[in-house]
Write a structure and sequence with these properties.
With 295 residues, the protein is of the alpha/beta class. The protein contains eleven helices and eight strands. The protein starts with 22 loop residues before the first helix and ends in a 5-residue tail after the last helix.
Amino acid sequence: MKHYEIAEEKVFLPGHGACPGCAMALALRYVLNIFGRNSVAVIPPSCMGPMMGAQPYSSMLIPIFHNSFESSASSAAGIKRALRARDRDDVNVLALAGDGGTYDIGLQALSSVAEHNEDIVYICMDNEGYMNTGTQKSSSTPRHAYTTSTPGGKESRKKNLVEIMAAHHVPYVATANIGYLDDFVTKIHKIKDMKGTRMIIVLIPCIDGWGFPGDAAATMSRLAVQTGVFPLYEVEDGTKYTINHGPEGLPVETYISRQRRYRHLTAEQVSEIQKEVDENWAKLEGMANLFSATM
């Protein structure tokens, strides 16, 4: 893996409104440092809204468009087309959205943008629920996880958005998190140099919504990968799979036992989650073996 030096441009400023220890703040810092000042950000209602601050004040030194919940992808595509019409095709257009505005409310616009292969970068900060409005479930919430709208635990599985985007045959879709910064930085550099619809889903462990200590976001990020809950991989052109980091033999209980949202689980439910994680990993390995990026 190629290693990059990060020039601290301070595009994302201190004094933002994120919770202390929030993984999203660190993720945004890396994304914005790499893309730099020649960028525009589209931000729907989400934790990022109050993080950025009310206009004319902002914690980002780039133009920000606060769009409606459902229109992040289409708004970004419209801005990119307008810039191209003004001979400013060099400007990076970033959609920075949460899982609620991506997996759920914004999925229709995202699908249309992906179908047309609009030249935008879409970063989904996935904290697995509507954390900004009181920890309600989204379709990204994992099975059996507590939320205020699923107090007995969510009954359905987490939506596999990587596979949905891969089915659109976009140039690039990947997973990442702050527990593996070299991998994260490499992927951001990679999409910066590409064209078309590019997407990275970043797992953002939520201190308040998941229920863990404020200094443990990086640890939770690593455990998500090491237990196989959130493997890090890339899919290029819908067919070329590359697994970057996967499970290291740790049981899922190592990960979920550290989170308040899983404290209600029975031993049988823990076993169900382990079985689901094992099945998902076997499927991903099969896809990677069948559709290797080296083909």
